[in-house]
Amino acid sequence: MNRHRHILLAAAAAVVLTVTPANAENGVLNDLEIAHAAYTAGEIDVRYAHLALAISENASVREFAATMIRDHSAVNEAALTLVGQLNVTPQDNDLSRVLVDTATQKRAELKAMEGKAFDCAYAQNELVYHQLVNETVEGHFIPSATVPELKALLSEALATFKVHEGHAEHMVAALGCST
Amino acid sequence: MSRPYLIASCGIVAAAIAAAASVAAADNRPHRVVVRSFAFEQQRLEVKVGDRVEWVNEDIAPHTATAVSGEWDTGALTRGQSAAISFGAPGTFAYRCAYHPQMRATIVVTETEADGAAH
Ligand SMILES: [Cu+2]
């Protein structure tokens, strides 16, 4: 699991570094790119959750997945409302693309599994994924966002995702997966 | 022993509510529990028999207030939604959010001092 975490974090760090010089003088993602990446990150977790509901027969894993769909959908709905109010269009960017590509690979891996192997792989991925997203939202998105409403939404989203991270940690422990 | 029952509000549909006599005074103001930042504002709330407790969700994420015993459940409350439960009998009711199991709190229902004259 640690290996996976390092690979993902390295990928994220690389993306942040690559994206940085390509954008604006400040060397940070702009508001529209942040909005796009945050929305994408939520959609990705919803897709993982649908996969879990299709494959897992473990009640606690299925409950967790249902909560991911419920919560991430609510956050993304709030994001769409904000985007509508501000009358802006989020911008696709390198970070969003890497998130999507990485998740596509991961879903392919997960789809080939079943039973406890799937449950453990899904649970561990959820933990690592939320850690990665939370570090990125807290360390990069919130400090870089300039629109107050976006900053506020990201902060509330972060609080939600941190609860998910804790929940995922419990799920991994309860499943008794080998690391 | 009569059980608490749900008074649906704001279009929330009551699910799996135990039958109970309508003990609550019709016009009593509910005790309000704000659900915010993945917590129930009052960890422990003391009310009298016949009182209503209303939960209001202020988070983006939907929550519930669900008796650990399974006796009552507000159902999903999205942001800004609320639902109330009336407590018709004394007792200590542990409850949690069905979606976020770490969210827990307790309602303590006690007899009114002069039962029948209190309202
Ligand atoms: Cu909840």
Notes on the structure:
The complex is a heterodimer of chains A (179) and B (119). By secondary structure, chain A is an all-alpha fold. Chain A is built from six helices and no strands. Helices cover 84% and strands 0% of the residues of chain A. In chain B, 0% of the residues lie in helices and 35% in strands. Chain B has a single domain, classed as Sandwich (Immunoglobulin-like). Chain B has strands spanning 5-7, 31-36, 39-40, 44-48, 52-57, 66-67, 82-86, 91-96, 104-110. Chain B has a five-stranded mixed sheet with strand order 1-7-5-2-3, with no helix packed on it. In chain B, strands 4-9-8-6 form a four-stranded mixed sheet, with no helix packed on it. The two termini of chain B are 20 Å apart. Chain B contains no helices and nine strands. Chain A binds chain B through residues 66-67, 70-71, 74-75, 78, 156-157, 159-160, 163, 166-167, and chain B through 37-38, 59-62, 76, 78-79, 99-102. Bound molecules: copper (II) ion. Copper (II) ion is lined by residues 63, 97, 99-100, 103 of chain B.
